[in-house]
Design a protein that fits this description.
By secondary structure, the chain is mainly beta. The chain contains 2 helices and 22 strands. It has 2 domains: 1-31; 39-277, Neuraminidase. It has helices spanning 9-31, 233-243, and strands at 41-44, 46-52, 58-64, 67-72, 79-86, 89-97, 104-110, 113-118, 124-128, 150-152, 157-160, 165-169, 182-183, 185-186, 189-190, 194-200, 205-210, 215-220, 225-231, 252-257, 263-267, 272-277. It binds calcium ion (CA).
């Protein structure tokens, strides 16, 4: 806020209001236990490589042993797709149609199984990594809410539901680990619409794209706070212009680290997967 003219009586009232609001925000920040002195920095990503792919309604993305796995949504159209990376292109290795009654969402691999969330079906699907056939028994626990993103940190499965909470689940039977959930904030302010997730083993951070933006939050699970954002705005805007995609129909919605630690990103109806690099803020 910049004051450009000398304040009159009314201006003094505005000034008092401004300073009292400032004090309130300051106190709110203290009461909220704000760990950082300022909002998290925004870091632009740099394009390393791009890979053409068949566009899908992408909801989940992860690597396992060099293969890129993708789950895509919509009722009657949900799929599990396996992609091989070649020069400039992704080749489809295999596609599995998922049951017509489900709207597939985020996915990851844990306990030797491909685990796939469904949006509002309260169900978790599981597929055998080798045969890609469904694992029917034992049945996992009912998902207590919506399923958006899913990732595995080696101990816990993290689920997003479009709010500012990341829910912790057992990778064995998907039981909810009550009390372990994370309420995500940036400088003490809750940040919701957390969507596709990806755990980064090297840093221990969990990345979550924020629905409605081309920003990806890098979350420290120890403090539940966002430590920086990755900015895909320029990359995504250029892609949308070339392929004439509308923003609402082509949101960023796929994040995956490969075994070397490189980040790959794609989105709903994107005809490309981008491999990007970025400089971590100090
Ligand atoms: Ca992911």
């Amino acid at each position: 806020m910049v004051l450009t003219s000398k304040p009159g009586r009314k201006g003094k009232g505005v000034l008092r209001h401004f300073f009292s609001t400032l004090c309130l925000l300051f106190l709110t920040g203290i009461l909220a236990g704000a760990a950082n002195a300022a909002p998290a920095k925004i870091v632009a990503v740099e394009l390393t490589k791009s890979y053409a792919k068949a566009p899908k309604f992408t909801q989940g993305l992860f690597f396992h042993e060099g293969v890129l796995y993708e789950t895509s949504g919509l009722y009657g159209l949900s799929e599990l797709n396996l992609w091989e990376l070649t020069e400039g292109q992704l080749n489809n290795l295999h596609s599995v149609m998922l049951p017509e009654r489900v709207f597939a969402e985020g996915s990851t691999v844990a306990e030797g199984m491909i685990q796939i969330l469904t949006w509002q079906g309260n169900a978790l699907l599981r597929y055998d990594l080798e045969s890609l056939t469904p694992i029917m028994a034992p049945r996992p626990k009912r998902v207590p809410g919506e399923g958006w993103g899913l990732t595995y940190d080696g101990e816990v499965l993290w689920r997003s539901d479009g709010s500012n909470t990341l829910w912790a689940h057992s990778p064995v039977d998907f039981s909810l680990l009550s009390g372990k959930e994370l309420i995500i904030t940036d400088n003490g302010v809750p940040v919701d619409k957390l969507n596709e997730l990806e755990y980064e083993p090297e840093s221990g951070l969990i990345y979550a794209n924020i629905l409605g933006s081309d920003l990806v939050a890098a979350i420290d699970p120890q403090s539940s706070s966002i430590v920086f954002y990755l900015d895909f705005t320029q990359l995504a805007a250029g892609m949308r212009e070339i392929y004439q995609l509308k923003f609402q129909e082509s949101v960023l919605n796929g994040l995956a680290f490969d075994q070397k630690g490189a980040l790959f990103a794609t989105g709903k109806h994107w005809p490309i997967v981008y491999e990007v690099s970025f400089l971590r803020p100090l």
